Amino acid sequence: MTNLITTPSNGSAILAYGSSSRPHSLRTRIAIGIVALILIIVGMIAYIRLGARIELPEHRILTIVVVPRSIQNTLSGELIASLPLTWRTAIESRSRTPVLLGWAYHPEDGSIRAFASLFRTNSAVASGDIQVRTKGLTHLLTQGELRTERVRINDFSKTFQLAKKHRASWIVDASSLKTALGLEGDLQKPDLVYGTWDGSRGSIDLPSSQASVPEQRQSDMLVILRGNGDEANPLLQSLQTQGINLREIASTPQALFISPSGTRAIWTEISLQDTGKVYAGFDQASLRSFAIPDQTEALELFADAKTAASGTPFIIETPKPDDSAQTTPMAQTNCPGTPRLVISGNAMKNTLNLFHAPETWKKLFNSLRIHETDGGGVICVNE
Description:
Strand order of the largest sheet: 5-6-4-3-2-8-9-10-18-17-16-11-12-13-15-14
Largest sheet: 16 strands, antiparallel
Number of strands: 18
Low-confidence stretches: 1-20, 307-327
Order of helices and strands: HHEEHHHEEEEEHEHEEEHEEHEEEHHEE
Mean pLDDT: 75
Structural class: alpha+beta
């Protein structure tokens, strides 16, 4: 048997309207809908890139952009468990949308506090003492009070672009970092440094030194300063707290080697007046002249280490070893390029202590190197 179902015209919108006198009206409506959708998407992109703002802590020292699902698959469970709670909460969201992780300086008590920022499309389960502030496009996760500010998303456009090609991208504000270290920094004048990270190596925006590199000797910290006064001031201020006052000398050292036995400062460019100040201010036995590999004449000062207040990563607090450390060449490394900064030994431990790093980090991270290459700068860990 065949069941025939009939529908009266007044019960069907199509039959009730009959045939259309405009056969292309459906196509027109579809086209208008597509154009409207495109305009909405373009408008949203323009709003996000040009006008949208997100809430973040003031005085950010470090801001990292990662994709939780991607980074969680590359980090060990032990390392993830050792991360600050706000970071761990963001990463465990397993979102495919980038998130911001960071450290911010808290001027009221001088502490450094972790934070995370997730777009509202992400879902994360906050636990413990995490405070969640939802405003605009994002959730801000903090532990303890942090003063916040409204920041344009477009300010992070470079970092988001770099994160597409790397495991992580990051920004360091050198001014906030100096202030957190108790050195001379201006919180009102950000000094941003960009970089990426891909496991044991990363990259960093590094200006060319264009300077002769002094001979390299084994030390817990090596810094090639390029004779740049602004770059050297934080180190020179830290050394002054240890009784090594180089701030009265206008010619900035090109290199500093800091080890348990003391500090070696090397000038490859120094005026006659400053040479006189060095010889007048320090024991003659601690000074020597020598030629570096390109035959440039250099002046070296070796100053014995003195105990000072802890907390600054440039201060080495270990018994003085034999003087052979002064002449021991630096260990070979697979890190490409020419050393500009090397932190190892107690200097590395002090640096991690400054950020209240857990014991896991102290076991995993033994040294940090920043080398200069033709393409900029490269960061190597444990090499």
